[in-house]
Amino acid sequence: MQARYLNPVTNREARHTARPTAPAAIVRAGVRTWGTLRLWWRRSRQRTALRTLVSRDAHFFHDIGVSRATVYNEGSKWFWQA
Fold first, then answer.
1. Could you give the CA distance from residue 35 to residue 42 in angstroms, rounded to a whole number?
2. Which of 4, 13, 51, 81 could bridge to 75 as Cys pair (CB 3.0-4.6 Å)?
3. Which residue stretches of the chain have pLDDT < 50?
4. pTM for the whole thing?
5. Phi–psi pair at 8, nearest 5 degrees
6. Which residues contact residue 40 at a Cβ distance below 8 angstroms, ignoring those fewer than 6 apart?
7. Which strand (E) or helix (H) includes residue 22?
């Protein structure tokens, strides 16, 4: 008589615990890339708006509680810089 060994992991569970396939990894990389590009685009738009604010008068900056130099420094950063 042959000994039968019980497999604690069924085939269904083994599929879910296996390493992701190459297409899934490619999709995840694409999603991360798309998210990074969206973030960079938003930063670019925001910093363009900040550069236009620098021309406002001093009362505007006093009202919102920041200095003109702070707005200028944030507006002059490149889009990939946090």
1. 11
2. 51
3. none
4. 0.62
5. -70, -15
6. 79, 80
7. helix 22-53
